[in-house]
Amino acid sequence: MTTITDHLEPWANVAPTLPEKDQGLLIGNGASVALWPRFQYQSLYEMAQDATKQDHLEQPEIDLFSAFETENFEAVLSAMITAGKIWVIYNKPKRDIDDLRESYQRVRESLIRVTIWQHRNGDYTTIRHVLKLLSALVVSFPFTHCIDQMLIEFRRQRMAKHNERTTMFCKSLVGK
After folding, report:
1. Which candidate, 109, 98, 97, 38, places its Cα nearest to that of 73?
2. pLDDT in the model for residue 12
3. What Cα–Cα distance (Å) separates residue 139 from each residue in 26, 65, 144?
4. Dihedral (C-alpha) 103, 106, 108, 111: value to the nearest 10 degrees?
5. What is the pLDDT of residues 84-106, one digit of tens each?
6. What is the reported pLDDT for 55?
7. Distance CA 22, CA 20 (A)
8. How confident is the model at residue 176 (pLDDT cuts 50, 70, 90)?
9. Residues linked to residue 144 through DSSP beta bridges, in sequence order
10. Are 143 and 27 in contact (CB under 8 A)?
11. For residues 105 and 98, what is the distance between their CA atoms, to the nearest angstrom?
12. HEC assignment per residue over the chain
């Protein structure tokens, strides 16, 4: 039986003991936050309060974040889902439940908008450097799986730009 301790064995010691199929790398949700502070909830929350931005948080939603003493969108959204379920059980008026749903949508849309804004308007010099280092690590594993949505989106945008440049180059070669 394996004993769990607070000691983390170096990968160089662990890898040789595992079959190759178990030597993959999982880049978890939150990896982008570790790579770039502008992806942290505090930064996103500050932007979401900016009334000049589309889909900004309104005062009732800001009050929710304050009441839960958090800047974590997922925690607030989860609490709102729980509240909705409770309100249904207690037969609260449909109008109140609809208000909660609208508020939930504002928080959700605000998170989506500020995340997209960060991706499109960020200075990627630092994150590109870190991603190059991460790439060097990734190639040493037989397989890699990334579930961090911000890193996936960053990669998708880079691939789209690369494909666009390649298409433009190819069109210039054939004169179209």
Report:
1. 109
2. 82
3. 13, 40, 8
4. -140
5. 999 999 999 988 889 999 999 99
6. 84
7. 5
8. very low
9. 25
10. no
11. 10
12. CCCCCCCCCCHHHHHHHCCHHHCCEEECCCHHHHHCHHHCHHHHHHHHCCCCCCCCCCHHHHHHHHHCCCCCHHHHHHHHHHHHHHHHHCCCCHHHHHHHHHHHHHHHHHHHHHHHHHHHHCCCHHHHHHHHHHHHHHCCCCCEEECCHHHHHHHHHHHHHHHHHHHHHHHHHHCC
For the chain, what are the domain ranges? 18-174
Range 14-19 contact pairs with CB under 8 angstroms and sequence separation of 24 or more: none
Q: What is the pLDDT of residues 27-63, one digit of tens each?
A: 776 676 776 777 778 888 999 999 988 888 999 999 9
Structure tokens at 110: 């605000």
Q: What is the rounded average pLDDT for all residues in the chain?
A: 78
Structural contact between residues 119 and 157, judged by C-beta atoms closer than 8 angstroms: yes
Q: Which residue has the tokens 């990627």?
A: 124
Instruction: Give the range with max mean pLDDT: 14-23, 95-104, 114-123, 143-152.
Output: 95-104
